[in-house]
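Q: Could you fold this chain for me?
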Amino acid sequence: MSPQNRIPAPAAILPLALALAALLAAPAPVRADDGPPEDETAALDRVVVTASRTAQPAERALAAVTVIDRERIERLQPASLQDLLRGEVGVSIANNGGAGKLSTMFVRGTESDHVLVLVDGLRVGAATAGLASFQDIPVEQIERIEIVRGPFSSLYGADAIGGVVHVFTRRPAAAFQPSLFVGAGSDDTQRYGVGVSGRSKAAWYSLQAAHDTTAGIDAYRGNPAWAAFETPEPDRDGYRNTSLSLRAGTRVGEAWTLEAHGLRAEGFNEYDGSFVNESDVVQQIVGSRVRYSVDDALAVTLNLGRTVDISDSYRNGRYVNTFETWRDIGSLQADVAAGGGLASMGLDWWRDEVESTTAFVVRERITRGLFAQWQRDAGAHAFRFGARRDEDGQFGGRTTGSASWGWDFAEGLRLVASFGTAFKAPSFNELYFPYYGIPTLRPETSRSAELGLRGRAARGGWSVQAFDTRVDDLIVHNAALPPFGGPDNIGRARIRGVEASADARLAGWQLRGSATWLDPRNASGGAHHGNWLPRRARLGGRIDVDRDFGAFSAGASVTASGERFDDAANAVRVGGHAVTDLRLGFDVAADWSLLLTATNVFDRRYETAAFYNQPGRGWFLGLRHRPAR
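A: Sure. Below is the predicted structure, expressed as structure tokens.
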């Protein structure tokens, strides 16, 4: 198979970026006094949508939710999505050697493929490996992120055992808003972003382009146990990513809303520790939405889209293999006022198609899901009940459910309890990879219980959650299977934990903190029974401190993680670490800001995956133009 992509790429992304820069001085296409349309996109700053598949005020959501908005992203200036997420409550990241390298995310101690990743409502990821390549989603293209922790298969189907991470791409915030970002830093890092967006009462649009490149670090220091079989590669492992996103929508009459959106990111990655050491990657998400809404009594939404995950691998410039996933997606959802609350019901459908130089016996499967949910606020109490049935062409059917209850027992205090079941479908590699896959694998299943307490006051808020998750039929490698071992449903896990978060404004300072304690145990009953699950730290946390001083701003972040083990036998230990980042900002003019960040300022040597290096001390200087909202 040729390593050529069979989907049309956005032509000349960088020339387009330059053309967009010229638009920064163009006249506004809509009047400045035109107000934003009263639609779901305009309300994103005030609501969350992932926790219930309906828009609701963030403080009323029964699920444990973390929201990272555009303002916070621009203040923190993270180099990547994984840098933005590390240390968030309930989230742990393992990275294989810096920017662009394989990064896996563990939510509440579950497996890295137990978290569902959505981009603008569409599920993304490679059906072959069962993982989302979130390291290739550019931060400059992100408007906000909602992290929902806990089992959510009753709403979204497969993969949502640990939670859902929902990425929303850039959206218009004003009648006309150009934007520009340029910067450079250590390791020959360069970043550029340019865009234009706008909205009137009846229509909105956004067009954003970005480019990110770095020489990187030496990703892999080598595994001493494999020294006789590995060829050392003491070199820098670079990464570059070029992306383009588009969004446009209109309101037709009083009831109809039409919207289309797309994101394409193309990257080139160098890495070590494998029989290949280079890859071309593509992430593409294209979708459309039609919504009919009459007051608060009825809303019907149709979503259609396609997501693409492509990786062409090379060894020292020579082509080796290709892995592609094409996923066609459709969903129809109706929200109806019923029983004093809101009833939601719908149908999800998606088809995964794999194209590869590897001869998979089966290359396509179709999944269908029917779901229903009812939620109601009744005085001091709130309820949510959900159920779902998924039918898969490979493993048959699975039924999941959830129930949540909230009680506002005092002013600003809420007690929340919930229970839910979830499942993870086996990946194509686990099912059909030649001489390895086992077509008779069953889905992994889980049941989780949670109890939480939340408080809100004028200066900020806080929350504490305790949870217990048990996973059955966990798919692990079974060395006894012929001819070379293979995946098998012989694993079990019990994960208990407590997570806490708080935010406050004190004496002009903006403070945010989170902490997570986990007890992630192997419960399979074999030789590894009672061991820690690989790559999960028992302790983790993050503190962000920021303050504005007129035209100046200053901030610091400390991210800490306890020790972890990199293998099921708990023989390979990865030490704990704490990393400190500093940042300064200066408003050089009304719409222009100069930003300076210093990362890992104490130059700590640490790893999040055994034998893979992490960046040392670094710096980045950037200039951003964005009119105030």
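A (continued): Residues 329 and 559 are 37 Å apart (CA to CA).
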